[in-house]
Every structure is written in C-alpha cells, then in structure tokens.
Amino acid sequence: MNDGGKGGDGTGRAAPSKRKDARRNKETLLDAAATVFVRSGVEAPVRDIAAEAGVGMGTIYRHFPTRADLIIAVYRHQVEACAEAGPALLASSASPHAALGQWINLFVDFLVTKHGLAAVLQSDSSGFDTLHAYFLDRLVPVCTQLLDAAAEAGEIRSGVEAYQLMRGVGNLCIGAGSDAHYDPRRLVELLIAGLRRQPD
Known about the structure:
The protein has about 200 residues and is mostly helical. It is about 75% helix and about 0% strand. It contains nine helices and no strands. It is globular and about 60 Å long.
C-alpha cells in the first residue's frame, strides 16, 4: 500500500510536468507557424512550419487537424503575446515612447499574419467576428497604457486614442502580403515618430 501511495504521488508530480511540456511544445509550434506566416503567408506549406519548429508534420496535424485550426490558434497566441509584451516593454525600455515603438513593431508582425485570416474564415463570419472582438478587448487597453505612459512622460502629445492609432497602423499594413516591394514598417515608424511632442 505504501508503494501504491508513492506511485500515486509520483504520478501526481509527473502530470503537471507533462502538461507544462505539452503547453511549451504547442507554443513552440505556434511561434514557428507565426514566423512562417509572416514570411510566406497563411497558405505556406505545413512542411515549412514543421521544419521551422523542428518537428514532423504529424505532430502539427495532431495538435491542429485543419489549417483553419492552426491559423486561429496562431491568431490567439499572437494576441496574447502582444498583450503581455506591453507591460514588459514599459518596464524594460529606456522610455515609454521607445516601448510604444517596440510594441507597435510586434503589432505589425501580428497584422501581417492576421490579414490572411479573413480569407480562411470567410465562410464563418461569426467566428471571425468573435476573434476580432477578442483582439480589441485584449490589445486596445495595452496600447492605451503605452500611450498614456508616453503622454505622462511628456514624450508624445496627449489625446491620441489607442483604437485610432491601431486602425491607422492596420491601414498602413494593407498590401504588405501581396507586394514584395512594400514594407509598412518604415511608414509605421514615421507615424510613431510623428506622435512626438514638439518643444514649446
């Protein structure tokens, strides 16, 4: 009976570790998929994602049976990464304006991936609407926090609304996936630089 008790304890300790490993492996897959989507678009071959992640294709299909499943998971994963990055950048950057610029770069990466989502989900507009609401709920408050911190530090003009800024950045990213000569980052950098408060 004592042996059984030890075995039970061992299993209890091992289960959380296995769950943590599985979660980490899934996040590795999502990071790899996001990288490939940004580089090659959401129609990139699954074998490219498998190569990026260093796993077999079967591993990807086991976690994500369809491409839509994978894209939705990447979408949510990137939203969470963007949301968590805001406070971390504020804490580690030289200034709130620098943190804002770094966060916007992450947001641009997300948008380049996101633009392929509508085509994949066009047959399920309710599903896309749900994801879009999730995106706004998670990211608008983070952008607001960054803007407020930069305004309070006197680095940017006050009164800039997070939703308007994010919408503007999104508009600059349109076409990035279909035109190899167009890189929205330069224009986005100019937009963020333009928020700078002019000396009196």
